[in-house]
Specification:
single chain, alpha/beta, D-Maltodextrin-Binding Protein, domain 2, 4-stranded mixed sheet, 42% helix, periplasm, ABC transporter substrate-binding protein, signal, SBP
């Protein structure tokens, strides 16, 4: 049994240990807001950035001012431990969790999330449902509205323009760059969300029939689809930073390598990272973002109310506030966090729409507008395990 399957089995055991708490009737939102007053919401996050913390500090102040809700941040070492906490009944219990799509899929399979509530929140009206299908899908599975979309991420390459003029637009071109510039390209550890997403993009770009990645995995499909990918990984690994013997442990570490000039190019999962890096003066002005010509793996990250939330009303109000135009504009500001909005500006009031469009226009790099979905969760599990086995064996 793989580690991920073993972890899921443990989570399922937790899920059966105690009954879920029923969510309040969302038809009476004023009553929910009233009941939330004076409550504390425990929000679980894993691996949050300094920008995310700045935003949450601001959001906590606004929640207390507007709704008399106290926001308590609970840090977890990984998304896996965060999912496990959704089923806890002890002091690790949380009300709300910041989850990636893979974690949402795992939590749904373990029945740790209430369903069919996200679209009933007042600010759901502003969500970009047509332009961002991933707001209702997580790792190839429908969310059944069991999680509230919070932001959008796309695999993006960043290069220091003062060090290189190369902008590889395909895995083959990236390999050519790495051969000419050994040790100058890095991507985060494949075990991280960013490293995994980058490799999924390479896999889809090289697969003869990428559509197989959208279906549950079959052995024959896996071997055929992944053969070009593993050949590419074997070729590029010794040309990576530190000859591929180790990887940056996080997005933040990879960004630091670029800022210090230890590498000239990195893979990231936030297209606004360049604007945020310049706003904080950590990155030089010459850093530019770009992507592969066939599109970028694009995903949504979510806020999910725990099925056993101790303060369900306050958790719902908090999640709805995070969807509000005011919160999404502050979140998208590179000087605050620099996280791509999940809202459709055409649905917003005129001034807020203009503010959001300005932030996106000035902050986002020029790259293909094609959004590539994450593969089915069975492919994600298989690829993660196979990549780790291959890296360990060489």
């Amino acid at each position: 049994m793989s580690l991920r399957r073993a972890a899921l089995a443990a989570i399922l055991t937790l899920a059966m240990a105690a009954p879920a708490v029923a969510l309040p009737d969302l038809k009476d939102w004023p009553a929910i807001a009233t009941a939330a007053q004076g409550d504390t919401v425990r929000l679980g996050i894993a691996g949050g950035s300094a920008g995310q913390q700045r935003f949450l500090d601001w959001a906590g102040g606004e929640l207390e001012r507007l709704y008399d809700i106290r926001l308590e941040i609970v840090d977890f070492p990984s998304q896996r431990t965060l999912v496990e906490a959704l089923g806890a009944e002890d002091e690790s219990r949380i009300d709300l969790a910041a989850l990636g799509s893979r974690a949402v899929a795992e939590a749904r399979r373990a029945e740790l999330l209430p369903e069919r509530y996200a679209y009933r929140l007042p600010n759901w009206h502003f969500v970009d449902r047509a332009g961002t299908p991933s707001v209702i899908f997580a790792a190839g599975l429908p969310t059944h509205y069991s999680a509230v979309p919070w932001g959008k991420r796309s695999v993006t390459l960043f290069a220091n323009g003062a060090a290189t003029s190369s902008r590889p637009d395909s895995p083959a071109a990236l390999l050519t760059y790495a051969r000419a510039n050994p040790g100058r390209f890095a991507f985060p550890d494949p075990a991280t969300a960013t490293g995994a997403a980058f490799l999924e993009e390479v896999l889809r770009s090289l697969a003869e029939d990428p559509s197989v990645l959208d279906r549950p995995i079959a052995a024959a499909d896996a071997e055929a689809a992944a053969a070009p990918f593993f050949a590419w990984l074997d070729d590029i690994r010794p040309l990576l930073w530190q000859e591929g013997r180790s990887f940056p442990r996080s997005e933040a570490e990879a960004r630091d390598l670029l800022a210090r000039g230890e590498v000239d190019m990195i893979a990231d999962f936030n297209p606004l990272a360049g604007a945020a890096g310049r706003a904080s003066e950590k990155w030089p002005e010459g850093v530019e973002g770009f992507g592969f010509s066939n599109g970028a793996v694009t995903d949504t990250h979510f806020l999910a109310v725990a099925a056993r939330a101790a303060a369900p009303e306050a958790a719902l109000v908090t999640a709805d506030f995070m969807l509000s135009p005011a919160a999404q504009i502050r979140k998208a500001d590179p000087a605050m966090w620099g996280d791509v909005t999940i809202l459709d500006p055409s649905r917003l009031p005129q001034q807020e729409a203009q503010d959001l469009r300005t932030l996106m226009r000035t902050g986002l790099p020029r790259m293909s507008s094609v959004s590539i979905p994450r593969p089915h969760h069975s492919w994600m599990d298989w690829l993660g395990q196979r990549v780790q086995e291959r890296l360990a064996a060489r």
